[in-house]
Structures are given as structure tokens and as C-alpha cells.
Amino acid sequence: MSTQARRPDVPPPPARRPEEPAPGTTAPTPPRPTTPPRPTTPPRPAAPPRPATPPARPPAADAAPPKSRRTFPAFPAPRPAEPPRLRDRRHTGAVDLDPRPGAGAPFAAAPRGQEHDEATTRLRPVPRSPRRTAAAAVCLVLGLGLVAGGAAGTWLTGGDSAGAADRFTAGAALWHDAPVDRLFPPTVQGKKAGPGGADRTWTRIAVAPDSGCAKALDPLLASVLEPAGCARLLRATYTDATRSEVVTVGLLFTRAGEQTMTDLRTRFRTEKLDQRRDLMPRPYAAKGTPAEGFGDDQRASWSLTVLDDLPAVVYAVSGFADGREITEPQPAASATADGATTAPAQAGLGHTALAHTERATARLRVLARPDTEER
Predict the structure, then answer these.
(1) Euclidean distance between the first and final Cα of the chain, in Å?
(2) What pLDDT score was predicted for residue 99?
(3) How much is the pTM?
(4) Sign of the CA dihedral 66, 72, 74, 79?
(5) CA distance linking residue 191 with residue 368, whole number of Å
(6) What is the pLDDT of residue 194?
(7) How far apart, in whole angstroms, are the C-alpha atoms of residue 43 and residue 227?
């Protein structure tokens, strides 16, 4: 028997906790939380059936074989978007025309000239305003005037180009179409045509046979008027009530057109050819009349006008009936000026020449254009 004391038995090691891994092993991974399931996706609608493909046309005999073409499935056309309401697009300051909640239905549009009676919802006539009626009448009159003016020519300008051309052509035939008493009246009244606005009266004493211009005009004046040509020249001589003065009126009808007459008129105005003494027209001295001694040396004053609306040149030359010689003749524009002291001016011969030129021009325009008023 051993003398050594017996050691107590070693107690066994305690059991390991379940969460501690065994030596030499890896700890297990804890499980992840479970993810909730996703909602079930609704099934897609079935695709619409493809439209039936129309039967292909039979190829022509000489046509090339068709190429292979890839076809795509047809999709339905998208629905047009619904247009936004006018209320959603209202601008600033716009008026809301939609009925308020609880309000009755708006009236339908009433016929013209009537209105709705809110009490009975019946139509009743609307009384016309006098001012509105007058405005309508004025518009009607103006409309009729414009239509009439357009039919007659131009309402604002007084005539159209076609009418002016017709009158120009008619004026060229006046020398043989118009009566002599219309071209040269037996008596010419000159209201306020004398010096100081005095009334004058002249009586026709001779009418020259129609002729050319070779002997009736000075050579220099004939050369200036040569571009217009001389178709015919008509002349007549007058005397005043006292038989102390005589005046010859001439109507020279040209062969020129409108543009040539316009150019000739412009030249006379710009160069003042109607005031040159070497371009005075000649008088017609009829035998057995107070104008028998009315020659070139007796010319005291003259006036000459080139027309552009008619193919004519109008002139008048005046002098004393006693045959006195005038050394310093004066154009009518100068003899009628204020303060003129020459013999033609004091005798009123400038007024006489100017008055006859103006009245003869007015008569020609009346004969060619009846709408023109004769002075």
C-alpha cells in the first residue's frame, strides 16, 4: 500500500456552449433575414392579330423579280392626345365664359336684330339706333359712288389713261369736225377780263380759210414748232365794242403725239419762248374790216400756249385798230403785270391777248372733253 496520498480525480471539463465552435472548426454563418416576395407582374396583353396582307399583284412579264423585303409587325396607331381645355390655356386678362356652378344654361345666340328677354326667355326685336342707321346709309352711298366712279374712270383723279388717249385723238379732228361758231363764237364775253377787272366784249369780224402754217407764222416760230408738225391752222379776228383794238386768235392743230406735245410745252415754259419778240405769231388782216391794216408792225401784245392734253397750240395777238406802228411790243405776261406803263399795257392789249388765249383753250377742251367746264 502506497504511502502517497491518493489525489482526487480531476473533474471532467464542462460541456461547451453550443454557440462556441469546436476547436479547429469555423463558426457557421447566421442565416440572412428573409426578403419579402415581390408583387406578381400582371400578364402582358396579347398582341393584336396581324392585319391580313393584301394579295401581291402578279408581276409583269417584263418586270424584274422583287427583292426580298423585311417585314415589320404592324402596331396600332397611337391615340391622339386630348387637347387641353381652354381654361388651362387662358391668358392673363381673359374672360371666363364658362357658366358658374348652379347657374342655368346660357341662352342660345339670338337671331340678328333680336335679343333674349331674361324674364320670359323669348325673343324680342332690338330697336335700331338712329346713329347706326345713318352710318349704314352713308356706307351705302359711298359704295355706290365708288362703283360708279370705277365704271366712269377714276373717281379721285378725274379720268383714266384710256379716256385721256381717246380725248387726245378726238382733239386732233376738231379742226374739221367742230362747227366754226363753236371754235370761234360770233361774240366772246370777257367777264373781268379787262384792266382792273373790267368786263369786255369782242365781236368776230373775219374768219380765215383753213390753211397750213408756212405763211401764217414767222420762220423762227415755225422752226420751233416743227417737231410737232402742222396739220391745220384756223384763225379768226375780233374787235372790241369801241372798235379801237383788234385781236387775231389762232388754233394750230399738230400731228404730234402726247409725249411730243409734253416735251414741247416743257421747252416753252423752261426757256420762256412764249415771251420772245422774234417768236410772235402773225395776225390775220381781213380786207374791208377794222383789221385791214393789222400787219406785223402793228402787233402790240401776244400770248401763246402749247397744250399737252390736246394736239394743239393756241395763240392770240392784239394791236390797235387805227394801224399805228408799235416799236416795243410786250408779251401778255408782262403787259398784265402790276405797274406796267407801256402803251400795250395801258391800252389793255395784254389783257385782250391773254383773255382770248384762255377762252379759246377752254373751248377746245370742252369740245374734246364734254366733262370740262368752260370758263
Answers:
(1) 187
(2) 46
(3) 0.58
(4) negative
(5) 24
(6) 80
(7) 104
